[in-house]
Predict the structure.
Amino acid sequence: MPTDRRSISSPAGPRKLPVVAASADGAASADGAGPTETPRARHPEWVKTRLPTGATYFEVRDLIHRLKLHTVCESASCPNIGECWSRRALTIMILGNVCTRSCRFCDVATGRPLPPDQGEPQRVAEILADLGLRHTVVTCVDRDDLDDGGAAHWAETIRQVKARCPDMTLEVLVGDFKGDVTCVDTVLAAGPDVFAHNLETVPRLTREVRVQARYDRSYRVLDHAKRRGAVTKTGLMLGLGETLDEVREVMRQVREIGADILTLGQYLRPSRQHMEIARYVPPEEFEELRLEALEMGFPHVEAGPLVRSSYHADGQRDIVRELLGR
Ligand code: SF4
């Protein structure tokens, strides 16, 4: 999952605010200061986000908290929260807010999660119906403690959302289910419109970045979903120490299995406990990679410093519908 985690031993993590600092022009800039960086060092000027303000932002926040739901936007301290929530774009995170894994880029808390909340699927459907969205992304924490990795809970959530919001396109951003493709089939059988699973980084860095994951396993999950006819999506973070040629190789590999949508974004360090940023990738390089990916045949590519798997996903509704129709 595209998140950062702090290790805690209790399921109840404290609420966090997005890690942002005001910059000269009133925009906000995520603070990536690390041990070897100047204290309070700023990101480059192209990494700017909006501070959370405005009535819609607070309405969305109140609704989420009233229904006792979690979002990756808050749990992972996403720097885009001000912009996204101000236009009612959010990514609900199911199966709790404590993850069984400890990826070194992710700010979601690691620990021993509570059992799945049986009322959660219905509340997810309720909030999405209330918000009247045309497209949304739902994600989850990794639940290696459950025999099915949470697949049955996923399926129930998808079914309830589809029943309440028949016109909304639904993208599910799932974990690797430890490579168990029967769990992938359980999720797909419930009928999501997009099956997303992030490779996050290149093979050489996977073990360091996603401690309990394997690149080949994630690749097989995507391949399996595509063979089952799903519209598939994956994403990478750049700036973790990969080379551009390694990124190009991953792009080629995922295109080979027919993945439809690719996202490329800058890794931003949520705290000093997380991996350092190896490099800020300038916007021109993202654009270069976007054009190369389109050239390789991806139907849709989002690439840019602030791109996250779910960033502007609502704008992908038309391409998703077109892909579903093919
Ligand atoms: S980019 Fe995704 S995770 Fe971040 S605030 Fe927007 S919807 Fe939430």
Summary: DSSP finds eleven helices and 13 strands in the chain. The pocket of iron/sulfur cluster is lined by residues 72-73, 78, 80-81, 84, 89-91, 308, 310-311 (CB under 6 Å). The two ends are 28 Å apart (CA to CA). Residues 151-164 form the longest helix (14 residues).
